[in-house]
Amino acid sequence: MLKELEKKKVFSGYQYRYQHDSQVLKCSMVFTLFLPKLDNKQTIPLIWWLSGLTCDDQNFATKGGFQAYAQANQQAIVIPDTSPRGEGVPDDDAYDLGQGASFYLDASQEPWSQNYLMYTYLSQELPELVKSLIPNFSGQEAIMGHSMGGYGALMLALRQPERFQSVSAFAPITNPSQVEWGKKAFSNYLGDNHHQWQTYDPIYLLDQEKVPPMLITQGTADEFYPNQLTEEAFLSAANQHNHQVTYNKEEAYDHSYYTIASFIGQHLAFHHDHLRDNI
Amino acid sequence: MLKELEKKKVFSGYQYRYQHDSQVLKCSMVFTLFLPKLDNKQTIPLIWWLSGLTCDDQNFATKGGFQAYAQANQQAIVIPDTSPRGEGVPDDDAYDLGQGASFYLDASQEPWSQNYLMYTYLSQELPELVKSLIPNFSGQEAIMGHSMGGYGALMLALRQPERFQSVSAFAPITNPSQVEWGKKAFSNYLGDNHHQWQTYDPIYLLDQEKVPPMLITQGTADEFYPNQLTEEAFLSAANQHNHQVTYNKEEAYDHSYYTIASFIGQHLAFHHDHLRDNI
Fold first, then answer.
1. Number of Cβ within a 10 Å radius of residue A27
2. What is the ipTM of this complex?
3. What are the chain A neighbours of B55 within 8 Å (beta carbons)?
4. CATH T-level topology, domain A3-274
């Protein structure tokens, strides 16, 4: 059952917050959806935003400053939560594991494998539901995110290159197999099978003929850069496979939503260029 | 002693969060200051933002979406806290009295009169400090705010019409003497002397020859409109005294920061039109 928790008018459009019972995640989930006011009878694309560690669907909604651009570009924006939630859902005291830290994959290990199936949730259950809420959906999708969510956006786009027209990320974890955040998450959710790790690591997913165009923004004053947010291996692998990545280092910007707000207009313009109306 | 708590790059400018010991309020205070990156060697004006009940200096900083416009218009923006703060400062369990609910006046009643001197703080101590942090200050000021802070902006601008070039407000309490929020605050902070109430009520302050131009935005879906946020008596008094008020009712917008973000560009353009560079 879908329940509308909130409806806010913002920049002429409406931003909704919904709750639903997820069959895949076996818990109650919330998500936020912005629908622009239509300029005319055109159809509009759907762009996914995946948030970082500790966030839920509200951080980007309240602090991302995307609505003015999404209204101008006529784009629907959906913001899922960052993990399954609730008392019955396994968790960990650390901020970078369990609730708020799903890494958007399908976990194979106990105690996570019952609920932590975010990859399937974001690929099947939630898209079906969200698309039903966009009366004039064009059929086209793009995806973007921040930090863990920047990783999630790259991973989903590279695993589903036919689904997404374009992908962008702020401060993404491009090579989770090789950094502390990723190694901790992968070993807990996926166990020791490093072949399985590679099926979720963007670097290994670059090894295919055609992938969506990629835009990455990385602030140089980011407190997690370059420790968790390495770029060299990813850019080198992309180059090796002749894939197009626009990688922008932004001087003195940090890991916060202020950086996202400052460049989200550029990211939505990038997606706008790659999304075409199906009329 | 001034302490820098935070420095964030946003839309090319820098947003600072400072802490200082207030002599007037007899407690430690924080405030946020946005300084745009200068386009050239021009001087820039200072615009005050006063927040609503329960807020501090961070709500508008993170959710107001003002920085892109302040950068483009070359405006410094300062966001004070909404009251004195700390363990030694009197408080009340209700959200609309005590800490977070100063109403920006100088209290005359116990237990408030020792610390709750926000009017003096915003007129003398804080301006002096803030101006010293703007290397290229033009000498010109404007003021704006939301709800209780919209009231505060109107009240300060009408009491100091020579100081402020313009004033704007979102969902302001225009007539505090006549609504529950204002009557509760005024009776606690000022006692029963209704003559003193009038010196803080914008409606009575309209009775003078020259006041700054005023812009007010009010959402029609605001949960406190019109109960706490009456406009008729204020607009009628302004009209009677031949003062210019632009009053915009915005269909379906509510009391949240989404409304502020949607129209802050319009407000900053209004101030931009009335603030002139002193070069």
1. 18
2. 0.94
3. none
4. Rossmann fold (3.40.50)
